[in-house]
Amino acid sequence: MENTVVPLGAVLGFAFGGFFDGILLHQILQWHHLLSLVPGIDDLRMQVLWDGWFHALMYVIALAGLAGLWRLHRRGTGQWGWPLVGAVLVGFGLWHVVDTLLSHWLLQIHRIRVDSDDPLLWDLLWLALFGLLPLALGLRLRRHGGGPGLQGTAAMLALLALTSGAGAWALVPPAQTGFATVVFHPGAGPREVFAALDALDARLVWSDRAMGVVVVAVPEERRWGFYRHGALLVSGAGVPAGCFNWSRI
């Protein structure tokens, strides 16, 4: 009888792969956004918005995998231990294979490093290291029997901690640099933006063409003031903003 833990573990691993991609490449390294190469989407607000929808989808997939595994655990069925670990690795590797084939090469909505002179090389290196290698290792581990030390309850708690931690990491802002990114409401114009800067004694560092998104040098204690001047979102102002908090100039 086929081990029903395996497909559910692969679903969870697939979500882990998405979290790994989004957190490391979109936020920490900032090598690309989800739609970096889509024509007409050069607005930082739109890029961050779609990164956010991407993370939300990974949450849904991860919760589906966890819910299925929890039901199996409650029924006392399924083979846990190394087969589950292997299945998670298979799903993790499969995410990077699908992302490479679909997002990088077929749809071409982004590459691993969009600023590289040789994006194909980076795609292939990433595919080999985080796609094919975990996939091969996971398939090998699947052939092991359920090993001691990774029984059902321990495995579920470990997977729950990993999933929660991966999602929560996306909400943690980086160390403060003295800069804040501010998104103003759609109707705001340069006059309103400069009035806000003057009122808060903030220095403009960068803005998009419409001045709907600006990066400013302003002390942390004055950032909340932008909300009184038409801002919709201010990074580093006490409210976790996911990818937005990690956006560079």
Share of helix, binned: 40-55%
Which value, in Å, is the CA radius of gyration?
Answer: 21 Å
Task: Bin the strand percentage.
Answer: 5-15%
Question: Total number of β-strand segments?
Answer: 4
Query: What is the 3D shape?
Result: elongated
Average residue pLDDT? 81
**SS-based class:** alpha+beta
Main β sheet profile: 4 strands, antiparallel
Q: Stretches where pLDDT falls below 50 for ≥5 residues? A: 146-150, 240-249
- Count of individual domains: 2
Span between termini: 54 Å
Can you tell me about this structure?
This protein has 249 residues and is an alpha+beta fold. The protein folds into two domains: 5-169, no CATH class; 179-246, Alpha-Beta Plaits. 54% of the residues lie in helices and 8% in strands. The protein has helices at residues 5-28, 44-75, 82-106, 119-142, 152-169, 190-200, and strands spanning 179-184, 203-207, 213-217, 231-234. α1 packs across α3 (82-106) and α1 (5-28) packs parallel to α5. It is elongated, with a radius of gyration of 21 Å. The N and C termini lie far apart (54 Å). Residues 146-150 and 240-249 have low confidence and may be disordered.
Give a quick set of tags describing it:
249 residues, alpha+beta, 2 domains, 6 helices, 4 strands, 54% helix, 8% strand, elongated
Q: Helices, strands, pairings?
A:
Elements: H1 5-28, H2 44-75, H3 82-106, H4 119-142, H5 152-169, E1 179-184, H6 190-200, E2 203-207, E3 213-217, E4 231-234
Antiparallel strand pairs: 1-3, 1-4, 2-3
Helix pairs in contact: 1-2, 1-3, 1-5, 2-5, 3-4
In short:
The protein is an alpha+beta fold.
